[in-house]
Amino acid sequence: MRVLLVTWGTTGDALPYAGLGTRLRVAGVMVTVATSERLAPVFRRHGMPVHVLPLAEHEESALAPDRFDRRQSPARLRRRKRNAQDMAQVIARGVIGAVAQGVDVILAHPLTHPLCAVIARGTGTRCVGVYTAAPAMLLPRLSAGSRMPAHAYRIAETLARAAISPLYAPALSWTMRELGVRRTGTRTVVGILRGERVLHGFSRGLLPLGSVLPGGHTCAGYWWPVRDPGWRPDTRLTDFLDSGAAPVFFGFGSVAPGDARQLGATIRTAVRELGLRAVVQAGWQGLDVRGDDILTIGECPHEWLFPRMAALVHHAGPGTVGAGLRAGVPAVPAPLALDQPFWARRMTALGLAPMSLDARSLTATTLAGALSATLRDETYRDRCVALSKAIAAEDGTARVLTALAP
């Protein structure tokens, strides 16, 4: 079985796919990855060959720290739209080239799925979507409570896909012409992906009660990242962990919620007010928080670090949420954009966190209050531990292997 795994995004976005690809290889699947040069090392270090998608000149704009600013000029929005359309064209050309080398199944990240679905039809290849997040999750009101109307998820999925269709339109038209795919009924992302097989890399237990996924969609369970061969924790970190009580983790991944100095001061003040110790992950924002009971670190595998924490404060990205739940550690979610508000609301609706904070308006007072509530009430940890046991019983890779079977 020859599989082409097509993915793109931040490093945190790529890590679950590296874990999935590694475990598929162990099961005997031949996995090749199509991704950007920036992400290629994430996969190569685990022995996966990479077909490079030349996206370097587009990534600076697509992943700029200010990409989530609410106030952007019409001219900037137009530039970002053109950049996204150009990226889609580059991805389409690259995937067609990779498929030509011999592929049985394409596994497609949600950002690449519309293109991969059309390419699969034009080349006689199968395609399966592998999502760690879904377009419907960009609509956070979907998760406002513990229940929702049965078909709300399907409606939200349709609306979200309709909204992003213009970003794919030029590349889809070119791909259809290039491969001779008939355009009837397949002119939009909604039409192209209707009925497509999609596996979601998270636990079904995290979705609102009563939710019904679109046709062909299934929750597979998490695809956990794999630790880099030869990785060892920094002695500064191990010494800090051994020198006192379990600290609180602070990390915001690839998002930048405001000025780094101001955020660092907020963290420092809240930690001192509560008499806590803290580990702060610098992230893309370059946080550098210093103090006798505060240690700032670089990259560190969450599956190693989180079980050693008393609590977590993070941006509620899907991978970070999953890692925290896997470790059974309570968290204070502070989302910024995209699907982060969805996961933050799910955490509070499930009673895994006392509240969610707005990353854009964090203050030392609100942060200290949320942390105090989290640490004071053992109910949150108990619920996280219970969910971690349920998650551990799921095998996300096995579901993918089943989908790959002819």
From TrEMBL:
Keywords: Transferase. It comes from the Bacteria. The keyword Transferase applies. InterPro entries: EryCIII-like_C (IPR010610), Glycosyltransferase_28 (IPR050426), UDP_glucos_trans (IPR002213). This is Glycosyltransferase. CDD domains: GT1_Gtf-like. SUPFAM superfamilies: UDP-Glycosyltransferase/glycogen phosphorylase. Residues 292-400 form the Erythromycin biosynthesis protein CIII-like C-terminal domain. It holds the Pfam family EryCIII-like_C.
